[in-house]
Design goal:
Blueprint: E1 6-14, E2 21-37, E3 41-49, E4 53-61, E5 70-73, E6 76-92, E7 95-104, E8 108-122, E9 126-142, E10 144-154, E11 157-202, E12 206-236, E13 240-248, E14 252-281, E15 285-294, E16 298-328, E17 334-343, E18 347-358, E19 361-378
Length: 381
């Protein structure tokens, strides 16, 4: 149990740097990692976080050259990560039975990454990332069997912001933000039969924002992803049996904003999802019992603004509930699905583009879906 406030801060003040400028910050409330090899194992874990978790990574240009000739770094890389509860487990050539409970009542779990160079340039490449999750559970199976049950709940506000201000960059730049409440995932790279029972619920807000304000940017993009409840299960060989129960109560907000006075290629991509499930098996057998309820609402904004440039791509996607499952058709697939999706809230996707001078092309899309379900078998024949 973690009751205190966990804070990680990393700040670089840069006047002139012609080499790598890198800042990383990571803060975690509770962390458990383990595994079993060649012998069977039983795992029981309970994690609770009550104090706020905060991580911040900043690269701040101190240059005064208004022409932007002073280098902020070549390249520039900044990242922050905040996690309430983390569990990771690997089973190899054996069987594992696991029961895990993760609870977050922290007021906030927050990650912030800032790359600020109003009078600075990035000549090689620029990248800023921030991610935050209340609860995270991940398994890996290598030629074994996993039977796992999980309960994840969060009352926390999860907030993520990646912000960049750059005068000039004749190179690729990407600034991304990712916020999640509950994540549960499992992956097998070899034969690995899996059976999962997952329960996820949350009531806090899930906010993600990636933003860039640039002068002359040759190739630049912002990406924002906010998902309240997320289950991702991938299997290679053997069977995959899943019972999934997700309930989103808190609001989900995702924003990607790219402003560049002059630009070559510019992107702004934002995605927001209340409940998300992916379950895939590259073998015969899949059984899925899926229940998803979205009550909190989803709002997504993708925005681009420029004066003079070439190509701009803007995309906003919002889903209340999203589910995907598949099996291998070449393996004579045996797939059974029982799925219920209920969306009781507003789902909004907004895509905006403004070019005040001259541009070559603008490609903009907005997609809002209450319930989305895709179940299929695939193969090469």
């Amino acid at each position: 149990m973690e009751n205190g406030v966990i804070t990680s801060t990393n700040t670089l003040n840069v006047v002139q740097n012609d080499g790598l400028s890198q800042a990383k910050a990571q803060a975690t409330g509770n962390e458990m990692q383990g595994g079993n090899q060649d012998v069977d194992a039983t795992v029981t874990s309970t994690q609770t976080v009550r104090g706020s978790i905060r991580a911040a990574a900043d690269i701040l240009g101190q240059g005064t050259d208004a022409d932007g000739r002073q280098s902020l770094g070549t390249p520039v890389y900044a990242s922050s990560q905040a996690t309430g509860n983390y569990t990771g487990f690997t089973t190899e050539n054996a069987r594992a039975q696991a029961s895990t409970t993760q609870t977050s009542t922290a007021p906030e779990i927050e990650a912030k990454t800032h790359v600020i160079g109003l009078n600075n340039s990035i000549y090689v490449s620029g990248e800023g990332r921030a991610s935050a999750e209340a609860n995270h559970t991940a398994y890996e199976v290598r030629n074994g069997r996993l039977d796992a049950a999980s309960w994840q709940s969060s009352d926390s506000d999860v907030k993520v912001n990646t912000s960049a201000e750059v005068h000039y960059s004749p190179s690729p730049n990407l600034y991304a933000a990712q916020a999640g409440q509950n994540y549960y995932g499992s992956y097998s790279e070899d034969r690995g039969s899996q059976e999962h029972e997952v329960h996820q619920t949350q009531s806090g807000r899930t906010n993600s924002r990636a933003e860039l304000y640039g002068g002359n940017m040759w190739n630049v993009g912002t990406e924002s992803t906010a998902v309240a409840n997320n289950v991702n299960l991938q299997n290679q060989g053997g069977s995959l049996v899943v019972t999934n129960d997700q309930h989103q109560v808190g609001a989900v907000l995702s924003q990607a904003v790219t402003h560049a006075y002059e630009y070559g290629e510019a992107h702004a991509t934002a995605t927001g999802i209340g409940n998300q499930l992916a379950a895939g098996n590259n073998d015969i057998y899949v059984r899925l019992d899926n229940n998803q309820i979205s009550d909190g609402g989803v709002d997504v904004l993708a925005e681009f603004e420029g004066n003079t440039g070439y190509d701009a791509y803007i995309s906003a996607e919002a889903y209340g509930n999203q589910a995907l499952a598949y099996a291998c058709a070449d393996c004579r697939a045996d797939m059974g699905v029982n799925s219920t999706q209920i969306n009781n809230s507003d789902v909004n996707a907004v895509s905006k583009a403004t070019v005040t001078g001259q541009g070559r092309s603008i490609v903009s899309s907005a997609r809002a879906v209450g319930n989305s379900a895709t179940y299929y078998v695939s193969g090469s024949k």
